[in-house]
Amino acid sequence: MKLLPFRSLTAGTLLFVAASLLPSVSDAKDGDVITRGRCPGGVKTKLKASPENGRVEVEYEIDQARPGDRWRVVIKSNGRTILRTVRKVNSAGNVEVRKLAANASGTETIRVRGKNLRTGHSCTLSLKVPF
Q1: Phi, psi of 43 (to 5 degrees)
Q2: In 13-107, where do the E strands start and end?
Q3: H-helix or E-strand containing 127?
């Protein structure tokens, strides 16, 4: 039985762990663009942009958060704030924020920051919208 050198096993493990911590971006059905991320405390986030009758529907979800916590959510499109709100986590541990925004010509960058007002932890996701 041949053993792998410890160094190569460790490097491979570190690469896998590092890749799993990065936000993932995927294209979903009907031209949707989706990215996912993780925040401190095991909280998961998802940002989705969808074409909607010449506009862009932006959805931001926070999952597995502590029920009752309040989160400040700021959505920006090409650096301009299009929504600033505070939402309370429901009993299932979820928050969902939606905004229908104007669709600028060319590629848009949508950036969302969610901040837990109790802990101060924040999560940021961004994606490029080609439609």
Answers
A1: -75, 135
A2: 24-27, 33-38, 44-52, 55-63, 70-77, 80-88, 95-102
A3: strand 122-129
The confidence score (pLDDT) of residue 131 equals: 81
12: Cβ–Cβ under 8 A, 6 or more apart, which residues?
A: none
Label residue 19 by pLDDT band (50, 70, 90).
Answer: very low
Return the CATH number at 89: 2.60.40.10
Name the residue range of residue 115's domain: 23-129
DSSP-based helix, strand, coil % in the chain, nearest 5: 15, 55, 30
Give the tens place of pLDDT for each residue, 58-113. 999 999 999 999 999 999 999 999 999 999 999 999 999 999 999 888 899 999 99
Residue with tokens 């993932």: 24
- Whether residue 88 is contained in a domain is answered as yes
Q: How many helices (H) and strands (E) does the chain have?
A: 1, 9
- pTM, entire model: 0.77
In the block, tokens 């971006």 appear at 25
